[in-house]
Amino acid sequence: MAAKSVAREAEEILLATEMIQLGARLQVLQAETSLSYDRLARLYREVRGCSPPKGMLPFSVDWFMTWLPNIHSSVFYSVYQYMDAHTPAKKAKALVEAYKLYLEQSSTGRSPDSTEEPVLSFTRAWMLVRCFDSNMVQLSHCTRCKGGFVAHAHDPQNDFVCAICRPPPRAGKTRSKAAAAHPVEVLRTARKAASKISPVSG
Ligand SMILES: [Zn+2]
Predict the structure, then answer these.
(1) pTM for this model (two decimals)
(2) Rounded distance, CA 168 to CA 179, Å?
(3) Which of 122, 144, 137, 148 is nearest to 16 (CA)?
(4) In this model, does residue 154 exceed pLDDT 80?
(5) What is the signed CA dihedral for 189, 191, 193, 197, rounded to 10 degrees?
(6) Fewest CB within a 10 Å sphere: which of 21, 39, 154, 162?
(7) How far apart are CA 29 and CA 98, in angstroms?
(8) Are 10 and 34 in contact (CB under 8 A)?
(9) Residues 13 and 35: beta-carbon distance below 8 Å
(10) pLDDT digits (tens, 9 = 90+) for 162-192
(11) Ligand 1 centre from 67 Cα, in Å?
């Protein structure tokens, strides 16, 4: 067995710790680091003070297409894409940075002591990136607001109108929650945040 670099391992432990703090499930950590299951489980218990949850990850591509989750997923993915393309944060690190920004944006207007869970969990955000990587979903651009929105792969793109510009009638109750986060607005914020991470080149 090849000896693993200590520095590399330290880096992975830091990354895993950050992902656990954001709510990552063990399966996500296993996929994104080369740390053993036992070490990850131990790290999880140290960080969260409880055992990692067992069972399957929530998996449904259709979940990303329902009204409120679609808006939140689209916000997150737009930011992720920007981070991955324009900052030194790539892949798992881009995921972590984009998710932090998503949390900030999606909690705007919510009371600071609110214990409400974010609509898009870290594990689902990770799953969404995998769906994009395996071409199960695409980003369709709204003809009205120009924002990019998560859609099924191969869905027709001309005349596409997003879930914010044309909300379903039942959306009234949750509309205020979504209003805090329009992908176009959030992307603007993301660009500013990204320039703080490092000078954006190009
Ligand atoms: Zn729109």
Answers:
(1) 0.84
(2) 14
(3) 122
(4) yes
(5) 170
(6) 154
(7) 17
(8) no
(9) yes
(10) 888 888 876 655 555 544 456 667 667 766 6
(11) 13
| 72 CA to centre of ligand 1 in angstroms | 13
Instruction: Estimate the crossing angle of helix 91-106 against helix 122-133, to 10 degrees.
Output: 130
Tens-digit pLDDT profile for residues 89-144: 888 999 999 999 999 888 766 666 666 788 999 999 999 999 999 999 999 999 99
The Cα 181–Cα 71 span in angstroms is: 8
Taking the centre of ligand 1 as the mean of its atom positions, its distance from the CA of residue 111, in whole angstroms, is 27
Q: List the structure tokens of 157.
A: 């793109």
Instruction: Tell me the CA–centroid distance for residue 185 and ligand 1, in Å.
Output: 12
Of 46, 26, 24, nearest in space to 95 by CA: 24
